[in-house]
Amino acid sequence: MSKKEKQVDAGLRQFIKDLGYVAGGAALLGTVPWLQSFTPDKLDEIKKEKARIGLIGVGSRGQYHIHNLLEMPHAKIVALCDNYEPNLKAALELCPDAKTYTDYKKLIEAKDIDGVIVATPLNWHAVITLDSLSAGKHVFCEKAMALTMEECKAVYEAYKQSDRVLYFCMQRMFDEKYIKGIRMIRSGLLGDVVGARCHWFRNNDWRRPVPSPNLEKHINWRLYRESSCGLMTELACHQLEVCNWATALTPKSVVGIGDIVHWKDGREVYDSVSLAYHYGNGVKITYESLIANKFNGMEEQILGSKGTLNLATGMYYLEDEAEGNSAIEQLLAQIGDKVFSAVPAAGASWRPETKKVYKAHPVIKGKFNVNDGMSMIGAEKDGSDEMLSSFCQACITGEKGRDIVEEAYSATTLCLLGDRAMREQRCVEYPEEFKIPFMKF
Ligand SMILES: NC(=O)c1ccc[n+]([C@@H]2O[C@H](COP(=O)([O-])OP(=O)(O)OC[C@H]3O[C@@H](n4cnc5c(N)ncnc54)[C@H](O)[C@@H]3O)[C@@H](O)[C@H]2O)c1
User: Fold this and answer.
1) pLDDT per residue over 121-145, tens digit each?
2) From atom 33 of ligand 1, which residue's Cα is the shortest distance away?
3) CB under 6 Å to ligand 1: residues?
4) Is the pLDDT higher at 35 or at 222?
5) Which of 82, 151, 168, 412 to mutate to test the pocket of ligand 1 (most atoms within 8 A of CB)?
6) Cα separation of 314 and 342, whole Å?
7) Average pLDDT for residues 254-282, to the nearest whole number?
8) In terms of Cα–Cα distance, which of 404, 400, 402, 407 is closest to 439?
9) Average pLDDT, whole number, for the chain?
10) What's the 330 CA to ligand 1 centre distance in angstroms?
11) Which of 84, 207, 226 to mutate to test the pocket of ligand 1 (most atoms within 8 A of CB)?
């Protein structure tokens, strides 16, 4: 084992330890059932084995996964597939011993592959996942699950019939601050959950340079309806998954408005969306995303009668710790503190009298990672590597990750229904025929 591999192995053990798995396994599993395939004992069991992995789609996210896989002692990259030569070449430079393919159907026939990672554009997720499961491969597919409701259902049903492992990369499910935060919510820290507010703002056109016009849709697939639902499937799906995980419910309906406000460059997907998802108990998720202003960054706030937990930043705030003083009191205090050399008529540093300041408490003691949500590729230490590591273990043990597919199915179908609500300008109810037993309305 190389020095780097040893560090990662130690990192995985630390992750499990930090979650309190060793001490309080049963309580933890109620919040994160998928960790059953990720125990310290299992980590020991697979010590000398390696999952043989093939990657399908090795663009920016595929190469991010390659970097993580190269540091995992229990994974070996044996094959790469991409139908765009420059990306295949770049990936091959990272793992020169891998066999290369341009047709995924050939890769999934290979006998020396245990599991595949699908990091293609969204319109390929369902077809490649279905073919790979049929070919007997375990599958780790990028989010979102699929481009249509029908595809999501077909993948879900194929998975239920199959003895293969299937993961969708909703990495917050393996992020320590989310796991601990949701545990706190379940233990009553926030009182009754009364609402959720999520947003994801960037200032970035999402465009990539294209070497020739006939490659526009291949490279800028995120901007076109045939391959993407834009902000809903790219960003919202992560955040809706978190809200459902926190509430242990699925919204029963959604309304929304979507527009192309700023990036009027021929794209077909909205660059600005605002939606409200409605749970059966009256709780709502208010959701907003736009990509021409980043002032508000990325947040996932779960609002409770006794407090608020921002899962994205790993901080919570208790209602009875709110402090506030009037603008004049703030001004006098600031003069006293010699903040101003002259008395201003108004100051940006004054809090509006209607807004209180809350004491921030971290969900995790000690250092932890917070991502600003600005990277299109994925952030370091956001749970992606732990999730992938867990998948590689599952390729060896053959053990399915409980509820992973169900979480992805719920979140993805809600994104697609939100998109429908915006396009058809109406309230969309969750359709009966797409409900699965996992969902509680
Ligand atoms: N989980 C996350 O946080 C996260 C972050 C970024 C991207 N993603 C997801 O990863 C996936 C890929 O995104 P990306 O930014 O890497 O896109 P990308 O365009 O950089 O890469 C996609 C690659 O797939 C290849 N490809 C397209 N069709 C193919 C086919 N039929 N067979 C084989 N290869 C094919 C393309 O040539 C390209 O190299 C998307 O589903 C995206 O939503 C997830």
Assistant:
1) 999 999 999 999 999 999 999 999 9
2) 82
3) 56-62, 81-84, 87, 104, 119-122, 124, 142-143, 169, 171, 234, 376-378
4) 222
5) 82
6) 38
7) 98
8) 407
9) 90
10) 51
11) 84
Note the pLDDT tens digit of each residue in 233-243.
999 999 999 99
122 alpha carbon to ligand 1 midpoint, in Å?
A: 7
**Main-chain dihedrals φ then ψ at residue 310, nearest 5 degrees:** -95, 100
State yes or no: pLDDT of 313 exceeds 80: yes
**255 C-alpha to ligand 1 centroid (Å):** 29
Q: How far is the CA of 114 from the centre of ligand 1 (A)?
A: 21
Peptide bond into 144 cis (omega under 30): yes
Looking at the chain, which residues constitute the CATH 3.30.360.10 domain(s)? 191-322+358-373+408-434
The rounded Å distance from CA 123 to ligand 1 centre is 10
Going by pLDDT thresholds of 50, 70 and 90, the confidence category of residue 8 is: very low
Q: Secondary structure of 355-415 in the HEC alphabet? A: CCECCCEECCCCCCCCCCCCCCCCCCCCCHHHHHHHHHHHHHHCCCCCCHHHHHHHHHHHH
The CATH topology of domain 191-322+358-373+408-434 is Dihydrodipicolinate Reductase; domain 2 (3.30.360)
Q: Give span(s): CATH 3.40.50.720, the chain.
A: 3-174+382-402
Q: Which fold has domain 3-174+382-402?
A: Rossmann fold (3.40.50)
74 or 201, greater pLDDT: 201
pLDDT of residue 341: 54
- What number does the ligand 1 atom closest to the CA of 63 have? 16
**Single-letter code of the amino acid located at 420:** R
Cα distances (Å, whole numbers) of residue 89 to 58, 86, 107, 119? 9, 5, 16, 16
Residue 171 CA: nearest ligand 1 atom is 1
Whole-structure pTM value: 0.92
- pLDDT higher than threshold 60 for residue 22: no
